[in-house]
Protein: Serine/threonine protein phosphatase
Organism: Thalassospira povalilytica
Amino acid sequence: MSAVLAPIKPAERIWVVGAINGDHGALRTVHQKLAERITPGDRLVYLGNYWGDGTAESVVATINELLLFRRYFIALDGVDIADIAFLRGAAEEMLSKLQQIQFAPNPGEVFDWMLTRGIAGTTRAYGFDPAHVQSIMRQGAHAISQWTSQFSDALRRHSGHSALLSDLKHAAYTTDGRLIFVHAGLDGSRPLTGQTDTFWWGGSMFEAITERYYDCARIVRGASLSQTGLQEREFTLSVDGGAGRGGVLIALALDGQGKIIEQVTSDA
């Protein structure tokens, strides 16, 4: 398997956390509940969209909260660093591309599209006004390169943020092949190593899955633009409660076949 895929050892309980979208309050609440439940031997998979279109303070606090809980979980006696995985979401894919946007054929159009997908909150989080950035994107390659350098420097000034971004995986799977974890989409006609940007933008392909994918019992995703809430079907499970968009954050404990054992949410 490619280095961009995270192998996870099978376990009696695998916790998954849906799309967060920069909602620090929701994440903190779920983490408080998880801390009372998660134990050594469990696995923990975050399904992407950590950055989001929230306030600057909330977005930064969300990433800091993820780093703190990772430290807490790994510090538990008997927990290995391989027991936790962070997937790259659409927000993180855009954040990575934003740092290289000077190489895009039409940077202005690309940034305009990113704004429709929630990148404004991320730019504000690191001290940049989206409207001003929008104007820079039409000033030529040199001006854009200067800005991307400034933006990357601002990201690095927040301890652990760049390191987390660079460590994200495109997907995860249990080594027995029974469970696959993705951010938003999966092309059922291609093997896991043959997916392209479907992981982030192929939500409709995920929703079209009606048959078993290889030997996988269930495919789990964390983000959906069209279906919020817990969506459970025979071979798929969608865990987007609408956090950061007026909804709640969902975390689930799954057994080795992808059946739900326990559910916690950010509401009361």
